[in-house]
Fold these 3 entries.
Entry 1:
Amino acid sequence: MRPPKPAGSLLRAFLLIAIFAADPGESEMSTWKDQLAGQIDPAWAEEIDVFETQIEQRRQGKLDEKIFAETRLRRGVYGQRYDNGQRHDGIRAQEISYPSGSLTKGPETAWDAPGMQRIKIPFGGVTPDQMDVLADLAEEYSDSVLHVTTRQDFQLHFVHIDDTPDLMRRLAAAEITTREACGNSVRNVTACPLAGVCRDEPFDVTPYAIAISRFLLGHPDAQDFGRKFKIAFSGCREHACGLVSMHDMGLIAVTKNENGQEKRGFECYVGGGLGAVPHQAKLFDSFLPEEELLPTAQAIARVFARLGEKDIRSRARIKFLVANLGIDEFRRLVLEEREILSEDERWTAYLSDVRDYNERTLREGKGVNPAARPEGFQEWYKTNVYHQRQDDYGVATITLPLGDLSAWQMRELAELARRFAGENVRTTVEQNFVLRWVSQSDLPDLYQELERVGLNEPGAGSILDITACPGTDTCKLGIASSLGLAGEIRTRLAGKFMEMDEAVRNLRIKISGCFNSCGQHHIADIGFYGTSRTFSSRKVPHFQLVLGGKWTENAGSYGLAMGSVPAKRIPEVLERITERYVKERAKGQSFQDFIRDIGKLELRDSLEDLMTVPAYEEDATFYSDWGDPREFTLGDMGIGECAGEVVSLVDFDLAAAERLVFEAQVKLDEEAYPEADELAYGAMLQSARALIKTEFLDVADDPDIVVEEFRKRFYDTEIFHNRFAGGKFADYLFRRHKSPPREHTRDHAHTLVEESQLFIEAAHACWERIAQHQVAAASASGSTAGPSVQ
Amino acid sequence: MELQRLGVKFFLHQSSQLELDDLVPVFHSWIQKKVVGDHILVDVHNYSHVPRGPGILLVAHEGNFSMDSGDGRLGLFYYRKQPLEGSLESRLGHIFETTLQAARLLEEESRLGQLHFKTDEFLLVANDRLKAPNTQEVFEQLKPGLSVFLRRLLDGDDFTLSRQEEPGERLTVQVSTGCSDDAEKLLARLS
């Protein structure tokens, strides 16, 4: 895949002369740049050279830190937790005194702090040679572990920014780019990992995914977005492999007959997305002809760049533009834009080859030999092998625990691919690998080899195959340990997996460390996202339980939060819900239908006892997270030493707000949208009032006064602002207060319930900050009193 | 030889019984108490779910520590990330000293039971495929400097050096000796 030649090469030449003039030539071949000269596409090589120059400019203070931050993000170079130079070690917040001192690679991001490198893998396709390179890089620049993401990318952690140019060169020599792996750009284009071998698809979407990736990479019309833009392809409507409904632009392969000839096209959706407030994508075109795919994508990009929000980051995804304009007006604008686009031969040049696109098979397909089935094979075969539509070939899913594999395993897997599958390896959005075009007769041998390298775990796509974002392990935004919880659940379930009821085995669990949904909790059967609650001035990690999401039908519906549960009680919650499902479900009843039939009220009642937190003195384990022995803090800046036992008025009021939003969910389920809207709005008002009362106890109930006082005391002062999200949660209240819905729809009510839940979470976080401040002030003045409401 | 990114691995003795997860609080306490001299300790990461991986990882700015099983055997692996000054022998001295100090701390850690690290066999890993590709030629270049250092470390004990030749792997030198001294004794020779 080759990008267009970047602009500014003359500028770069000047910069290089200025920066390296005093450091004339090292010996030849002493650098990766020398070593790989001629092996990298010149345009890619130049881009990386430019980035290296920018690193040097920033080091010398000649490039603004914000500009550099966006620059590195567009090359997939992320920050990681603790990169602000502060870490709570379980006893106190400690400064991490990096040698680079005040030098930063972005606002509050220390230069020497280890970071994350994201590596784009369009449609998840990797070759064994590329896998070898990735393994080498994991060892030399990271921690010898490769992490597969929910967007079919790879991530390497604990990478020093000084190493990134060489890392990129070595990838580029293997025809992999990190360009636009992050930042406000077109992210990795994902596709169903079964594309081309699927039994349901009308045609293989792979060449189209490749074409759109190439076309939009570095495209001038895709460089001025307010936020990221994600594209996904699916071969069918029914299955989840492409998760089209949760994408900015989602495409499902369809055909129609025109004058006796089959014509290829796509059911095209826009404006979907998860994030804090999820949106289901809207149908843009029920049949977008294949020749219109690239120009339409370009037109959508131009409309998004021109009309999308740029100032308020939290409203900048295209889903908000589509929601604001309405799909009809959005479509009109895009079609208008399409009409004025200058013809580009790339729009259709690739089409002459798409019907010839075929993966080379390595071996002749033969049926599996029933006599050659090693121990454990049958269980693995049942869950991890997909029968291709091509006779006697199978797709083997390699289940990766938490999306991780070691460099050694990666190298071994590459060897197995060479032996059994050729070039046909893909990553999946469930953080696994698939080896395609494996002869059925080779599967027993493949299984034995996978067992040797520790990659033979059964249960692909099952309750064991948990998706989790990095959470507090490495993410700056993480609130609770999604990986820790996922690891704990996996350990507990693994031992009894074989005995589990089939219906439970097939459930999917997805966990995010915060509300941002990187772990895709909204589309799981059982989802969780990290939150925090304060008890007696100590923080306790919690997870919101999210039920009702639908993984199938390309992420057909999104779940809603049921209530916040202490992290240490989540395994019990899981056990109680699944046991009840096994005992009480009707024959063939889906988990979603079962939950709907019980009703959220009853279900919540049945979990009420698991939402409590024992006193610290009674059980201190509740006050630390899974897999992390440190006492739990938020943002590693908390103190949490106060031993006061007072439950504050604010806590009571926020609990009341949570009850209101829960009732809003119930009304939503009952399709009583006006009531759901009113309750969700009321919950936000209740939370705002709770905070106002910390300063002004006698605040009236009048919404106008509540909003005005809240704005004056908490928004304008930025006390309510989240460190990363700014004032976006307050905007939810202001917008609903100012503009009540003119018509009550499910979409609107659903969105408001989500927003209300997030507003309450933000109010909790705000109150925790206020309480800490009060404790610190009391401590400084010698008082031992806990936080109190004045 | 200007090789900087070197690593050392001391294997855990067979008699040692270690639950990897038990290392997590130990490494956290190292950060709390700043017990590793001249290292800025950053974070602990649990990779115990990854076979043949770094197990439990203690990330530091200068170099990483892990209870690693990357080569199939459990052991303390330390690899340097930031450059050191001085000759190869001097750099090796620094890296071995850091590793042995960490090994000694783990052996003394009551929360881990009785850990023991073997000193009759250990690995030197060149974590740099550019400067030290896994070839016989580079191995021969490395031998003299390494041998000078090992004579000092092992105080006259015989040793043999062999290169692990697995394709794709980093240059890894296995050191086999008759040494029966513990980590503390080896450490004393480096101070």
Entry 2:
Amino acid sequence: MKVLLSWLREFAPIEGDPAELADHLSDLGMAVEEMRMLPPLDGVVVARVAGLRPHPEADRIQLVDVELPGATGEGTGGALQVCCGAFNMSVGDMVPFATVGTTMPGGLVIGERRMRGQLSQGMCCSAAELELGADAEGIMILPSEFELGAPLMSQLGLAGDVLYDLEVNPNRPDAMSVAGVARDLAARLGVPFRIPAPVVSETGEDVSTVASVEIIDADLCGRFGVRVIRDVSIGQSPLWMQARLTLCGMRPINSVVDVSNYVMLELGTPNHTYDLALVPGGHLGTRRSAGGERLVTLDGSEREMLRGDGLIVDRDDRPIGISGVMGGENTEIGDSTTAVLLELAWWDRLSISRTSQRLGLRSEASMRFERGTDHELVPIALDRFCELLDRVTPGGVSVCRGRLDGRGDLPPTTRVRVRPARMSHLLGRRFSSDELRGLLDPIGLQCTESDDAAPRGAEPDDGALEVTIPSFRPDVVTETDVAEEVARHYGYQRLGRTVPRSPEPGRLTPAQRLRRDLRRVLVGAGLSEDMPNPFLAPDAVRQAGIDGADPVRLLNPLATEESVLRPSLLPGLIAAAAYNSSHRNDSVSLFEIGVVFGPPPAGDADTAAADTSAAAVLPTETEHLGAIWADGEAADAVHLTELIATAFGLRFSLTNANDLDGMHPVRAAQVLLDGQAVGVVGEVDPVVCERHGLLQRCAWLQVNVEPLLAAASAAAERPYRLVSTYPSSDIDLAFAVPDGVQASQVRSTLVASGGDELRSVDLFDIYRGDQMDPGTRSLAYRLRLQADDRTLTDEQVADIRQRCIDAVEHAHSAVLR
Amino acid sequence: MNGPATDTPASTAADVSPEALLASIDAARGQGLAAVAAAATSDELAQVESTLFGRKAALGQIKQGLGSLPPDQRATVGRALNEAQQDLRAAHAEAADELAASARREQLQREWLDLTETPPGPERGHLHLVTQTTERLEDVFVGMGFTVSEGPQAETDWYNFEALNLPAAHPARSMWDTLYLDLGERTELGDGEGGEASNVVLRTHTSPVQIRVMEVQPPPIYTICPGRVFRRDTADASHMPVFHQIEGLVVDRGIAFADLAGTLEEFTSAYFGKAISSRLRPSYFPFTEPSAEFDITCVICEGAGCQTCQRTGWIELGGCGMVHPNVLANCGIDFEEWTGFAFGFGIDRLALMRHGIDDLRDMYTNDIRFLSQF
């Protein structure tokens, strides 16, 4: 929302340093995104075209003799000579003239120079060159009454003006107008605010004889005001109006459209004009569409209505406009228009919002209707339109007597009970009733002493006020909303700063702390954390060999490549490994701790349908740890499981497994924790690697984080085991073990049979080769034996040794070597 | 044993005068010292040792002959003999030490190593910048008495919008470009109308976690909710469809807007340093009232005005406000008894600011050349 300081001043005597005013605006919640001091343009003055001559050497430029008091030059009769590329002016026209030495808004400094041999002693300016309008084609032609030689900006009434670009929050419909901004700022500055009453001289017939209004759906349209203006001649609006509109971001079109936009900017009341001659009987009706109706809007597009969309219809129920969004082409104002039917309505916010969003037609008008316009301004805005159109039309217009004022459902006036104690509680500063009045009355929130004595809630009711909410603040509905207004006008910065203290100490949960530890274990093991996109292409899931999962789909993805939620961390991590490999970093080790998604938990069909609880409806989310070693082997991943186990005092067991999704067919195992499968470890299926352009082996570990951290949390409390002070003995045992038996099984057997005195088992040598029978390998273990309370005798050591040998040979068809 | 030695003058039985004995002691001492000095290795010194000491050694033989001297002369010669022997032992011990030390020096020299030629060993990995930033933020808030809450990333419409005072047709819903999940098959189990699945969204903020906390935990509540959030945004230098937010929630008796301002100020100086302060500006969010925008002193220019802060000296960090009474009511909390505030801001942007990263997308390429810098 752009506002000019000079325009604000038409509503309140706002004075002060423009930068300080900007601070006030920001502090009031209308953040100043840009403040522009309009360039004084001192060197740009009003000059007269005294003569036009062709350039002897060029067709596209002509020579202009410029008359400027006190200046003489190379032109005819001592006038200044200017080379000019525009041909729209005539002798006698007043034009803006940039004298030599002027710095233009764009930074260009005007100098005396020669163009194709002809001297140019200044520049005649277009509106665009002065940043006062959109027209870049022709020179601005100024009104003949402008004073010759006077500075242009002062003649335009823009000298010293300031343009503020404000960011207006959706809950401030009032700030979508010059008047509304002025009201807020005036309240802050403590100066009076007033919307001047428009003066309309009504010279035409009674409006009811030429126009009529019918509100068919009262919930759509709360108020429908109409005026009729005759003797309209469509022309250009005056420069001051064009300049204001341009500076505020609207493109000047013609006098009627410009006045319409001017009133919208000024009062926040969008309005629409029809060519009365094209509206049969001057009748306007409004109703909701039943759906399927078609209409060509002003932008030339044919629009199809859905059930519930708001329409303007003519006497024959034919659509001629979309309520609050855009008018129809068939009743559009044209150059031949002489009578204007003016509509100024109040629409239901949600209806406008729905229709404009669906049609993709977000206009300055719909934006204001969506936020809520002020229905009480309807008659004033109608009159303001007539007043302005009369002023900008040469010879004036003839306004028909009276207004039509159709009424539908308007929101009732809101009254809010405001307790000073509650305000003080919410804001952290004590406010008296009088202080509250002082802050609220100037912004139109009228306070009266509440006669409702019934106390409500916990706050004392002393000095309660009844606050009547004005029609331009539909956003203020509750006592808390009023608190924001109090805070805003008192000043957020002036409210104190206190720090509340939690009665409990701050802390992370054990799982949150252990998750941090886990990340550091992984980093210590040389892995770097990445964060791949959790959105995948359906194909990427298959490419990673994840065949078992039916991934959760997005309903409105940005692209097919991001249309499903990852069912596994593998696709993301292998893609990241491939990315690095393709950038000549072939052996990265990466990990991620992140959520993978699955379909909502399956219940039996009958209860599932009835169960709409979040837990039943939402997809399952499981937090996984994924780790990948590009150019790594299964051992890398297995070692990491051991490292994690050591770090958290856990023991994983591995079970070789052959058909795990995305995994190498014979180099993969399930990771078990207390007998429960919590992950997989091994190498990525070489086919999957190749699909990603990875020719090296990739090791992979995936662990379900929740059970891991739960076990770690329990293990964190493990009791101390006394370190034995008695000597230990080591024995080495090598077995020939069939390949079908996992080393981990042999180990388990040793642990189980070794008894309490067996303190550690280390697999220290593996041998496959000529000295072994085919299908077997040698596994050599070192067992350390120790007792807590005595030195083990040779006989006791021999006993344990034999027990272990017997157990392994018996359980695994193994043979001691 | 009295047998005369044949190879030294001192051993000649013919001359046993004290003068002669003293002369031969002196000579033996001189020879011994020379032999010790001549030994170049520990082995040679060991050989010399056997010729210096013991009864067969020159001094040893002289000592054996002492008995034949008259007592008064025996004392004089004996003293000389002891002195000579002590000299030799001292010289020998010194030589032995020196030779051992030099042998060790030589041994160590042979172990010479250029430590700079060591091949690279195991490397440490790197935590992602988002993790590092999140943990730093968590630590500051934990220090201020907050707990850390987590919740699901896919949420029902209720938790993401409705409970936050954003009913179905609320125009402010367009403030978030929402990604919806297609759980179509399930919906068909329901009333068959379809479209119901559209009420499962990827959370657009971590506010639903606040709702979940308030539903189960009676006040007082002091918690933060960091986490991953989703928007239907095309990736560019400052937007990602997937990014990270941290929100805070306090609900207690007597909580006021001033508590919000004070808490944010305390956080700001704890996280950014004493030179950085905060300010609040009126704003609008459906779930807070009053609402505010939360600015901090520009961390680049410390308020002097620069390009980053568009010469204002301030940068916008996030949004905040007093929890809307409707939100408290939706969670079954009596808003007359309890009041609260909430705030939220982006984590990713803090990481960018801290390290001078211009393009948010760089943080998510997973390029090891990026990751390994932090």
Entry 3:
Amino acid sequence: MLWLYIHLPNLLLEHISQDQAGKTPLIVSEPGHGLVYQANRAAHELGVRAGMRLKTAVNLAPELVIARMDSGREQRALAQQARWLYRLADYISLYPPNGLLTEVSSLKRLYGGLPSLWQKLTEELKSRQLTGQMATALTPSAARYLAQINRGQCTDCPEILKGLMQTLPIEQVDLPERTVKRLGKLGLLNLNDALSLPANEIAHRLEPETLQRLQQIQGTRPDPQTPWQLPHHFRQRMDFVSDIEQMAGLLFPLQRALGELESDLQWRQQDTDYLKLTFHHRDHAETHLAIRTAGPEHQAAAFMALARIQLEQQQLAAPVMAMTLTVSRLIARGQPAGTDLFGTESDPDEAWQTLISRLQARLGESAINTMVSHPDHRPEKAWMQRALAKPGKTAPNLDVRLSHLPQRPLWLLRAPQAVHHLPEAWLAGPERISGGWWDGERVQRDYYIAQLNTGQLGWLFRDVSGGWYIHGWFG
Amino acid sequence: MKELLDTLLQDARVWQAGHQARPPEPEESTGYEALDYCLRGVGWPRSALTECLLDNAGIGELQLLLPLIRRQLAADRMVFWINPPYTPYAPALERENLDLSRLVVVQTEKSADTLWTLENCLRSSVTGLVMAWPGPLKIRHIRRLQLAAEAGGGLCILFRHTRAGEESSPAALRLQLSPAPDRQLNVRILKRRGGLQGSDCTLSLPGRFPEQAPGSDRVIRGPWPDSNATAQTP
């Protein structure tokens, strides 16, 4: 078995500074100890090193930007990175806080040898602006230690790998500190020295656990790994170095997250129609923004267009320090996307969805409706608003009027209006409409069609009180 | 000189403005012979704005458009009503045998939203017809809408007040609608592309003649107070 370990020494730093130019010195601090945990290149040039006291660092670089580390953050960042690796390799394990392990002997054939896989991983790391130290080894532990001290080589030759493993310094192996010291006093400085001793001697002089650990590194004792599984949802969190106060400032990080979402959905061959954006504020409860599309969609550009419309209209409640994009509803993809080779929408369904999503995003869902008639005698209840649904094929429309239905005006007033000057030209009527005794909204009216002096053709009625009202126009 | 010109004209790289083959704009008949005659066969202009100017609703402005709406629905295109002044009444539309699921009513609150909606609807390929009651418009807004209409393939009809007729407008067709005697509709062409303005015609629209049951040609005005009282206290 061949294992490959990717050590990400600056994971947290690179996670939060992805949208920064990298010109400002930036460090991540450990909260309890007041020590520098990770420092970026600009900070490094000013003399700031990891492990330095914060006070020293601030004196060296007064304009230093300090981001605080919290326990979950680095793990979440690691899980985000595991996503893309999972697309390339089937068996991966997470080594929090900043390592990813994958089994590569089964991948060599797929990628045409280890060098091309190595190349692919290097490119992926580079495209995500990540510093990664990779190492291969015959055992998971050996790969991890080699990657951590950046002594990995792109090779699958067992002899070379064995040689590399044997040169590992003893203090690199995660043994109890007491044991390491003791081994050092015995003059055992690297793994080769320790392994050349008889096994029962090690178990006898040191602890049996030490022997077990050494044998796991050597590969003579099993070292089971827990495989990581891709969760059935998409979640990406973007942490910002400095708080963002303008909606426009969120667009760029969002664009990147949507790009990740698109490739994730593409890889899963799934779509979604509901995105949730959560804004994390420093001194304010989280705020949410829902982005709905009219139909299943996977393209980042389509999501971005809708998000832009909504973000432009919204005001931020408070400065945003982090943003999470969550997609939990994943829909199996029915058909291939409707855009043709040139990126134009040839499919009317697709065009319909795009238009309606855009309108709903800006105007709200209640602003766009269709109408249906409703079986009720009362004119104001004889129709209903209905939320928009995708229309099917229209039946061949005969150019006929359904004249068995009573004549009704094309315009209905929202509420009947009192008529002050009665019209002279009465054309049709009366049509008595009486109903509603069953629900307390009784209507008892005689309807007429008459032409007003302005030339308008109206639908008038007189109710039991004797007042004349206009209720519609024959537009 | 002429030889030189002739050789030049033979050259495929020379483009002659006079030979510019203008693709004939697809016609959209109005469904009314008299109006079609007035518009000289151009009909409702596709990919362009049409303005209908009128004082009051209820003079037959929707009846005028029904043949057009019906044709758009038959072609599986959407018909949008943007900010209609009253409720388009579903039973009446159903009586006209229209597919209600393709008639979409959009209500906007701000005028910026209205223009944005109009523009988006016009640019989409699913749109057959957009009818809008946009309220007061600035000329630059209309120009923008005109551009959007050119980008899409749909028709756009703006209903505006007669007062707007005093201002100029980039719309391709401007009609002034006014009531005529006998419940007819007078259509006056204020502007059309490539033609004389000022011609007008009078249309009699089918939906404006109330159909009374035979034998009841007399309109009875009621209810009578006393009969009503007896009806209430049986």
